[in-house]
Amino acid sequence: MNICLILVLVFLLLAWGLEAVASLLTLRKLNSPAAALPAEFKGVADEEAYARSQAYTRANVRFDMITETAGAVVLVAAILAGAFNWLDVAAMRVTEHPILQGLVFFGLLGLVNSLVSMPAAVYRTFVLEERFGFNRTTPALFIRDRIKGAVLAVCIGAPLLAGVLWFFGALGSWAWLTAWVFTVAVMLVVQYVAPVLILPLFNKFTPLPEGSLRSAIEEYVRSAGFAVSGLFVMDGSKRSGKGNAFFTGFGKKKRIALFDTLVDSMTEEEIVGVVAHEVGHCKLRHVHRMMVAGILRTGVTFLLLSFVLGYGPMFDAFGMDRMSTHAGIVFFGFLYTPVSLLMGLWANVRSRAYEFEADAFAAQTTKKAEALASALKRLSVSNLSNLTPHPFAVFLHYSHPPVVERIRRLKELAAS
Predict the structure, then answer these.
(1) Known catalytic residue: 48?
(2) 55-81: per-residue pLDDT in tens?
(3) Is residue 57 within 8 Å of residue 128, measured between CB atoms?
(4) Do the annotations mark residue 397 as ligand-binding?
(5) pTM, full prediction
């Protein structure tokens, strides 16, 4: 058997196995005494509400296990059946131009992926989320979101992909470097225009009304020496009952966006605490560090890609009739799985550390650590978060530390 095919199958099995182990450990812990309601949440959530959050976690984990197993089976079957070659042959029948063939190939691949994943997305939104009272997405909105996402993928992804294909087809040994620079440039432009051109396609952003909340936030950002171009409320409630807050934009274009569900469910002090946490990420340069790390990861990816695009056995492993840049990019993605996993684990380790640092920044600058702790409790209870995740699941998936650990750190800061 082809060594590349063996490696791909082993990597896919490894990825599936890690997910399965994390899921099984999570389910086992949910049924153990270690999953009792944490002391920090007594008086905030009763046993009935906590049991509901555990049921929500259990339902999500089980559903993820089913979809991940089904996805792995379908993918392995597609590889062994030579399905990627079918798509490549179809692309060649549409056009003789190599770059257009690549665009058609990825378009067909995206279409197939959307059709295969659609049943799971429908079930998660309209059955699972509905069962626990979160879903507010209408069928019409669901369809519109899918259409808008596809249009954006074409408008942004197609030019980006065409550029990358051209670089690797025309520039030889310098292709990886030029493709890297080009991709980073596109990413930065998208990040810059997203608050104004992209996010409003999916949600409505209205200025936070004048009043005590706006005054409190403005007073805080001034005291923290942080400039924002606007405070907005996002209509997150039209899709879900969950709450959140985030920053968008760069430089003088930074904006604070609050979900309407968060504004409606928290006190002013709690909301200011959440905003202070987000300000902490910016003031401590977490966003810039993560962006630089992402840019470097992209460069490493393109460099490694340049080494394997001309490797014939990789294409033989997938039953291809010919070698092509567009197919090579997809196949490299499978071989890249272990590197991607390790990079993702390291990124999560750094992200969890940054979350603790942002919490500490918020506690120090507001001098109200208990307000942020209260906000975290309220968010966790209303979002039915898993309050007692298994350490392996945290290690594998979590970009944020478990909420109980964050609350304990904030208590220590408040006491000191």
Answers:
(1) no
(2) 999 999 999 999 999 999 999 999 999
(3) no
(4) no
(5) 0.89
Catalytic residue among 64, 359, 370, 412: 359
The pairs formed by 367-371 with CB atoms below 8 angstroms and a separation of 24 or more are: 368/269, 368/272, 368/273, 369/410, 369/411, 369/413, 369/414, 370/410, 370/411, 370/414, 371/267, 371/269, 371/270, 371/272, 371/273
Which residue out of 19, 88, 270, 278 is catalytically annotated? 278
Domain boundaries 205-265, corresponding CATH code = 3.30.2010.10
Cα separation, 404 vs 381, in Å, equals 12
Those residues whose C-beta lies under 8 Å from the C-beta of residue 300, and which sit 6 or more positions away, are 339
Q: Confirm or deny that 277 is annotated as ligand binding.
A: yes
Q: Higher pLDDT residue, 36 or 243?
A: 36
Question: What is the SS3 assignment for 66-109?
Answer: HHHHHHHHHHHHHHHHCHHHHHHHHHHHHCCCHHHHHHHHHHHH
List the domain boundaries for the chain. Answer: 3-130+305-415, 205-265
